[in-house]
Design a protein that fits this description.
With 372 residues, this protein is an alpha/beta fold. The chain is 37% helix and 16% strand. It is globular and about 55 Å long. It starts with 7 loop residues before the first strand and ends with a helix. This is Glycosyltransferase family 92 protein.
Length: 372
């Protein structure tokens, strides 16, 4: 027997947040429009500032009138037993695994949304359109799968996946009013079995966007509109997942082992050799657009001191941009197209109150603090 076989349409999501207000405001509005997002759990990092918590509480109230349920967790409401491999003593890694476990169980108990995405505030789910310069042979060379890791998909399987994904990618997003949910439903009506994955866990490849921008967008507060230069040489080393909750068994045995946010539940998502992250680029119908983002959004995290992972200062922002590069010269205009649909959905005044006004206020605060 499967869990909640008749969920309402919509997506759920889980995020860990450490002073990510600027990025989070855009992330929510984007996914509310594009998915649509109907329920969100925000897990607070213990080092989150009081000013960020106050802004988050205000944000919850603003969104309540628009059918988006946002829950803020200062601690985990319940502990679920699970095994971890590979073992780690990382405090952040342990908290992230607790989030993956508790949040997935939470939405199974809630039994409302059908799909759950597990990403970060700098990652935006989108269709993986066929790129003008897409060269399949490149991904064979620049690939974790070319390293010979045990249990990675064979060349034959990847070739078959690409053949199945290509015609789906070719029609994805052709209708500008189409959400990711409505596209998934259209594929299911056609009894198409490749996407979403029959296992209940769909791996989604990542594509990075750097900090190059044009003069006319220099003052644009939204990173999805400001930064339109994507990674020139995509690869398949980075991936996140989308879970189809009704396909998780009633016993929830699939959730008893956790690896990482890149492969949260190996029993459900499958093994990938020694690499928890990875999805063949050309075989992925969706992508996660991964942004370096604005300098203000970068410095805001942890007050410029960063998380335990690394210090977030201007140099680390520039280094991250270099790491993701090089980037294309041509512009990717699609990622910013959602804004007009968001305004049409909530109205001009509400779009300002939910998105533009609080982001601009927070940007001013960060600029003042860091004398930008």
């Amino acid at each position: 027997m499967k869990h909640h076989p008749n969920p309402n349409p919509g997506f759920a999501a889980c995020l860990i947040v450490l002073d990510d207000t600027i990025r989070l405001l855009e992330w929510i509005a984007y996914h509310y429009t594009v998915l649509p997002l109907t329920s969100l759990v925000i897990v607070l990092d213990p080092n989150t500032s009081n000013s960020s918590i106050a802004e988050l509480n205000s944000m919850v109230l603003r969104w309540a009138d628009f059918g988006l349920i946002i829950s803020i967790w200062h601690s985990f409401p319940r502990f679920y037993n699970y095994s971890v491999w590979p073992k780690t003593s990382s405090e952040y890694g342990n908290r992230q695994r607790r989030m993956l476990s508790s949040c997935t169980h939470h939405f199974l108990d809630r039994a409302k949304e059908k799909y759950l995405i597990l990403t970060d505030t700098d990652e935006f789910l989108s269709f993986n359109f066929i790129l003008p310069d897409e060269d399949i042979s490149h991904f064979n060379r620049n690939s974790i799968f070319s390293l010979g890791a045990k249990d990675t998909p064979s060349i034959g399987k990847r070739a078959r996946d690409r053949l199945e994904a290509w015609p789906i990618r070719a029609i994805a997003g052709r209708n500008p009013n189409q959400t990711i949910l409505s596209f998934i439903e259209s594929q299911q009506e056609l009894q198409q079995t490749y996407f979403p994955a029959q296992s209940g866990c769909t791996r989604i490849v990542g594509l990075a966007y750097g900090t190059n921008t044009t003069d006319d967008l220099e003052d644009e507060p939204l990173m999805t509109k400001k930064y339109q230069h994507r990674q020139k040489y995509p690869h398949d080393k980075f991936s996140k997942v989308m879970l189809e909750l009704p396909k998780i068994s009633e016993s929830r045995d699939e959730l008893n082992h956790i690896e990482s946010i890149h492969n949260p539940f190996p029993k459900l998502c499958g093994m990938n050799g020694k690499h928890s992250s990875g999805q063949d680029f050309s075989g992925s119908v969706l992508k996660v657009a991964h942004y370096v983002g604005t300098i203000e959004g970068w410095l805001e995290r942890g007050g410029g001191k960063g998380s335990h992972l690394y210090r977030q200062d201007r140099k680390s922002w520039e280094d991250k941009n270099t790491q993701f590069g090089p980037y294309t010269e041509e512009l990717d205009l699609y990622m910013g197209a959602w804004v007009d649909f968001f305004i049409a959905k909530v109205g001009i005044h509400s779009a300002d109150e939910l998105l533009y006004k609080p982001i601009r206020q927070r940007i001013r605060v960060i600029r003042d603090v860091f004398m930008l």
